[in-house]
Each structure stands twice: as C-alpha cells, then as structure tokens.
Amino acid sequence: MKNYTKLSCAPHIDFHDFEEVIKVNKLTTENILGDFSRFHILMFLYERPRHGYGILNEFKKRLGKEISPSLVYPFLQKLQNRGLVRLSIKRVGKKEKKEYSLTEEGTDLCEHLFRRFADLVSTAIEPGLTICANCGCKMYDGGHIEIIESRKMTFCCSSCANAYILEKGLRMA
Ligand SMILES: [Zn+2]
Questions:
Q1: What 3 state SS string does 122-164 have?
Q2: What are the structural domains, with CATH classification, of the chain?
Q3: Spacing, Cα 129 to ligand 1 middle (Å)
C-alpha cells in the first residue's frame, strides 16, 4: 500500500488520484462532504478514538439530534473494510469494549476532507468579505473605519489606517 502521509504538506497534490484511492463503494469525498452525518463521524474520530455509542452520544451532544445506529455502524464497517478505521477490542472487567480509531490513511482522508470543506466555506463567505484598503487582507467581520477626505474607508486595524494615511500623505477628515 502506498504511503500518503506526505500529502498534507504537498499543495500540488492531484485530488483526482487521491479520490480514486479513497473510493469505497460509494464512499467518495463528494458523498462524504454532501452528507454531514458521515462528515461528523469522521470528525469525531479525527479528534480521538471512540466507541460506537460514543459517536452516537457525541452527535446528540453537539448537534442536538439523534443519529441512527443504522447509519453509524455500516459506515464504520465500510471505513474498516477500506483500511481507514481500525477496530480494537479491549476487555474492561467482563465486558468487551470496541473502540474505533483512524488509521494513518484515515487521518489523511480526514485532512483532505477538511481542506475541501475549508475551500467550500471560503467560497461561500468570500462575497461578504471586506478588504483592508491598506494591506489587502480580507476581513470576515468588523474592521477599522476611518473617514479620509470625506470617504469612509475600511482597514483591518488602526495600524493599517495610519500606514495608509502616512504613505499617501493624507490627513484625516
Ligand atoms: Zn490591513
């Protein structure tokens, strides 16, 4: 099996090749991103190894709704079949506890998904962003407003506003 650990620091990676690799029946990046329940299951496992019921509880705690075990367990099984998740069984007293954890390949898949998700989110918020008139950085919220020669201008911070005023030899209105 190939080693994909270096992918996270290789921005030039070809997504299509990688998507071929992670295909599990219908388990593709697009399907997982399009299905937030599965996305969350992977996110919970990325945080730390968990028991099946731990995933069910976490889902309810964070999202305020129940997730069906009939969705969770077959999905975990699929991930396991594909070598993305490993199951370890620990004995606690007389009971057996099954714990699911991501394999190295599973961790890579998650990082890949998170990047894709971040891209989606930035595309969604891009039109609402304000650009600092001095440094050009993009602001999600707030900013520093100055009235310069009767024009209302937005900067990311007062330092940028001052730098702009200094550079242009302007004076505040
Ligand atoms: Zn700025």
A1: HHHHHHHCEECCCCCCEECCCCEEEEECCEEEEECCHHHHHHH
A2: 13-125 (1.10.10.10), 130-168 (no CATH)
A3: 13
Residue 3 has pLDDT above 60, yes or no: no
Spacing, Cα 10 to ligand 1 middle (Å): 29
Instruction: Tell me the pLDDT tens digit for each residue of 157-170.
Output: 999 999 999 988 76
How much distance in Å is there from the Cα of 4 to the middle of ligand 1? 37
Distance 127 CA to ligand 1 centre (A): 18
Q: What is the pLDDT of residues 85-138, one digit of tens each?
A: 999 998 888 888 899 999 999 999 999 988 888 888 888 888 888 999 999 998
pTM above 0.90, yes or no: no
Beta strands in 25-84 (DSSP E): 50-51
Q: Ligand 1: distance of its center to the CA of 146 in Å?
A: 12
